[in-house]
Structure formats: structure tokens, C-alpha cells
Amino acid sequence: MAGGGFSVSSSAGTEFEAKITPIVIISCIMAATGGLMFGYDVGISGGVTSMDDFLREFFPAVLRRKQQDKESNYCKYDDQGLQLFTSSLYLAGLTATFFASYTTRRLGRRLTMLIAGVFFIVGVIFNGAAQNLAMLIVGRILLGCGVGFANQAVPLFLSEIAPTRIRGGLNILFQLNVTIGILFANLVNSGTSKIHPWGWRLSLSLAGIPAGMLTLGALFVTDTPNSLIERGRLDEGKAVLKRIRGTDNVEPEFNEIVEASRIAQEVKHPFRNLLQRRNRPQLVIAVLLQIFQQFTGINAIMFYAPVLFNTLGFKSDASLYSAVITGAVNVVSTLVSVYCVDRVGRRVLLLEAGVQMFLSQVVIAVVLGIKVTDRSDNLGHGWAVLVVVMVCTYVASFAWSWGPLGWLIPSETFPLETRSAGQSVTVCVNLLFTFLIAQAFLSMLCHLKYAIFIFFSAWVLVMSVFVLFFLPETKNVPIEEMTEKVWKQHWFWKRYMDHDNHHVVNGKNNTINNAAV
Ligand code: BGC
């Protein structure tokens, strides 16, 4: 049940003739709305769950605990229901990924995005109108289904519609829009928290803007040529290709897509194929990158920043403002990645960020360990500023490393015939671990207290060592040449590359693994 994505770049590494046409611009806007929607969902729940009006309506016990001041500072938000509000979205999303993998292949990318948009809109209605906890959770589950469908279809749509020379940039653009969505959510929350008693409803309802944009976009754009050709609509595929490339000279690219489609269709069991020994390096790396990305602890900050700052004794307003600051740092630092990723490379960014994240987390843990006890949250102005600055240096380094690269590296290392199955596994594992962090963080904070930051910093150490020894540099390596130039050259992974299992397609220099499953 693969999504069936394949690259539009020439397998010989040459460029096809392609202009940046309005259709390509529209597809960028689509990517923006898919990413915005995901980011908005990530960012909105933390602010909402720190609003008293919201707690009074759905989690009165948490509000009582918060107001009574009897509870340990670290534990006042520890409530499974409250965490389920945040995490149910990711659980639904990871389940939806597998259906999305099927629909992207059978119904196409465009229809899958439309399905995502409809899920988003219905989910927003449930959330904005919620009268009880059940409606709230159902709404989050529907939004999660939207995320599952959108995160599978939008990146494939983009990579297939974009001219090769801007494909890498577009990939990080998606993450950039995730961060803009998070910032937008934080800004909305800081405004709506002043509107009583229904500000939270406005926060949840405004997700309707990116949801509506995605749906409208999906109605108006055309499906990708790859998807049309994959479903046997060759003439239509060729016409679309001419339109999006702005030229009649599309024969070479058209032939390559037809060939790629033929090879992809030869693979009867993409997921089983993924498990073969020769695909082990990419699979292991894709899965570990998702686990590591989430164990940096980033979503502890993204979901719960206002709650966390509140725990540290910041007043509600100050908490939301601090969350806006971290949100802005997240956006700006992602731009650093767009600029650096093809210049300094993936490994340098990841290793530098490892040091920066480790140090920031240790400083936060030490300050909290000394200043915030169970009963006293008197952090003091100077220390509070230091904590916010450390959170910012931590978020900045995540945003130019694990944030975008966690998505970019898997998408560029899988060979053609396992790329779409690989994308499903990547999204699924990512959402699974996002769910685990969302569900566990407030309880972990309650039990581990300041040491939670030591916990995450230890993980940062582990992942940095992994990068140092096991993650090869993929900067400037054409996708189709990864096997030869990266995996076969790597001191450890080369043992998984069985040399006789590759054959040459089209007489060109790309190696395609023969799909003997
Ligand atoms: C991660 C999300 C995270 C976001 C923060 C993404 O790459 O997958 O889980 O919330 O970055 O910017």
C-alpha cells in the first residue's frame, strides 16, 4: 500500500526543461497551508490548556489544583485527560497514515489532500463548538486524521510537481510553514486568552483558516502528472506536464515518469520490500531519526511552553508571551537551515546543534533544580530570563537541525521503489513518538521534575554519537546515486549493500534495486 511517490529528476542527473509556472507557485501555497495546519494544531493546545476558562469547562479538577496551590508545582497539570486532549490527534494521525498511503496511490495526491481538508474542517467545527470532553476529543481525532492524510500527500505532491532545482528548498519550506503555524497559534492564544469566557473557542476555531485554504487549494489544483500516469491516465498526465513545466518539450521527463511508474508498479509488496536487507540502512536511519527528533524533547516545549512557563512561576500572560518568543525563534532559525543545509551539510548542522541543545538543557535543569522546588516557584527575574534565553537557544538549534532534517534525510535517502513506503513509515513513527511525548510529558515533569531536562539531554548525547558514526553526509548527492556514493562507501552500512542485486535502468547511471519480493 505505498503512496507511490517518485522523483521527477532525471536519473542521469540532468535537468529537464522547466519554468517556474503559476501552477508551481500555487502548489507552494498548498504546501504552506498543509504545513500551517499541522503547525497550528501543534501550537494551539498548550496555550488553550493553560486558559482557566477552558479548564473550568472541561477539566475543573485541574483548575482547582492550579488555583489551590496545594499541589507540587511540577504536578499541577498532570492529568491524563488533559494530555489526551493534546495527544489524541497524533494517535489518530499515525493510524490515518496507512489509509493515506493507499489513497495517495489509488485516488491520487489531490483527492487525498481534499480528504485531509474535509477532515480538518469537520474537526475544527467539533472543537470550536465543543460542549463536552467527548466532542473535544472527537474533534482532535478528526484533525489528526487530517494530519495523517495531509502529511503523506502534501510532501509527495510537492516533490512531484516541483522542478528539480527547487525541490530541496521546497522540502524545508514545508517545515518552515509548520513553524509559522506554531507561531500563528501562539499569537492567537496570547490574544484570545484575554477574551472571557470563550477565547479558547476562538483559538480552536481559527484553525478553520488554514483548513479552508487547504481544501480550496485541493479543489482547484490539478493532480501531479506522476499520479495521473501511475493510474493509467497517460494523455492527461502528459498534458498536465506540459502545463506545469510551461513547455511542450516534456518528452524526456514524461518517458522517465512512465518508466519510474512501471518499476514502482512491479513492486507488489512495498512494505515487505522495505524490510529487505539492502534497504536496512535507510529504514534504520529513517526510523531512528524520527525517534531521536522527538526525544530531543522539542514538543515538550512546543505543546506545553505556556504550561511549562506557568509551572516556573510566570504569570499566565507572561507564559503566553514567552511561548510567542520561542515560536518566533523557531521560524527564524528554520530559515538558517534553508540557507545552510546545502552549504555546510547535514552532519555539521546536526552535530553543532547537539552540543547547543545539550548545554541549554543542562543549564535549564541546573537552574530549575536549584530555584524551583515543589512548593516554591520563586524563580526571580534574572533567573527567569536566563531560562527563557536557554529555551530559545535550545529551540534555535533544533530548528536548524533535527526539525527540518528529520524529514529531509529520510525523503532523500530511500531508493525509488521504497520511497513512498518509506515516507509512510517515517510519518507513522514520527507521529507515534510525538504521541508518546504528548501523552507522557506532564506526568514525566511531575515525577522527574527538573531532571526531565537531564533526561532529554542524555538522549541528545546518544543521538549526536549516532550522527557522528552512523549518519553519512548526503549533501549534494543526487538522489539516484545514494546507493553508490553514500551507502556503498560508508564504513558500517556498506555491509548491507549486496552488489549483485542492482541493475541498470534505461542505460543510465542510476541503480534501481530489483524488487524480488
Ligand atoms: C516536528 C514536530 C515539531 C516541529 C517544531 C517538526 O519537525 O516533527 O513534531 O512540533 O518540528 O517546529
TrEMBL record:
Segments passing through the bilayer: 20-40, 81-99, 111-130, 136-158, 170-188, 200-221, 283-307, 319-341, 348-370, 382-403, 424-444, 450-471
Gene3D superfamilies according to UniProt: MFS general substrate transporter like domains
MF terms in GO: monosaccharide transmembrane transporter activity; symporter activity
CDD domains assigned: MFS_STP
PROSITE patterns documented for this protein: MFS, SUGAR_TRANSPORT_1
Keywords linked to the UniProt accession: Membrane, Sugar transport, Symport, Transmembrane, Transmembrane helix, Transport
Localization: Membrane
Chief location: membrane
Membrane topology: Multi-pass membrane protein
InterPro entries: MFS_dom, MFS_STP/MST-like_plant, MFS_sugar_transport-like, MFS_trans_sf, STP/PLT_plant, Sugar/inositol_transpt, Sugar_transporter_CS
Domain Major facilitator superfamily (MFS) profile, first and last residues per copy: 27-475
GO CC annotations on file: membrane
Recorded coiled-coil stretches: none
A matching Pfam family: Sugar_tr
Family: Belongs to the major facilitator superfamily. Sugar transporter (TC 2.A.1.1) family.
Listed name of the protein: Major facilitator superfamily (MFS) profile domain-containing protein
